[in-house]
Design a protein that fits this description.
The chain is mostly helical. The chain has one domain. Helices cover 65% and strands 12% of the residues. It contains four helices and three strands. Helix 1 packs parallel to helix 3 and helix 2 packs antiparallel against helix 3.
Length: 167
Amino acid sequence: MLYLLLAAALCGVDQLFKYWVVQTIPLDGYLELIPGFVGLTHIRNTGMAFSMLSEHTWILAAVSGAVALSLTALILRGKLSGWEKASLALVLGGAVGNLIDRACLGYVVDMINPEFVRFAVFNLADTFIDVGAVLFCVLYIVRTTREEREKKRRKEGEKGDGDTDGK
């Protein structure tokens, strides 16, 4: 349950930041934060990354809903470590944050504009999704690698125990 609260808090932070941007920065307006590095640009994105599927917002909303339900089930029932669940809570919070935009507005509010990457404008939800997904993959690989090593050690130990009977 703690991880669902984390996801809800992250979703809330995302929605509050989007609200602030909409109230503060005019559409297509720009607010420089760190000169030459990052600013905020208020845009509406009906698609996903790089505006892909921009004519199919309803498909993206349906996929986001399905992902949110799947992640919730995995967090609640999955045999995962706390860190793995926390990383999935990041993804869940971001997915729901963008789902709320798509369902209520018909588009996602994007604003983070790294000046060193001219073609990318994204939002906090996207950041939560990306960081959570990468973190989960790393944690999963580390855990499964450890489990495989342990399984191999046990197997070698069983073989060694049978070979030491003095014959």
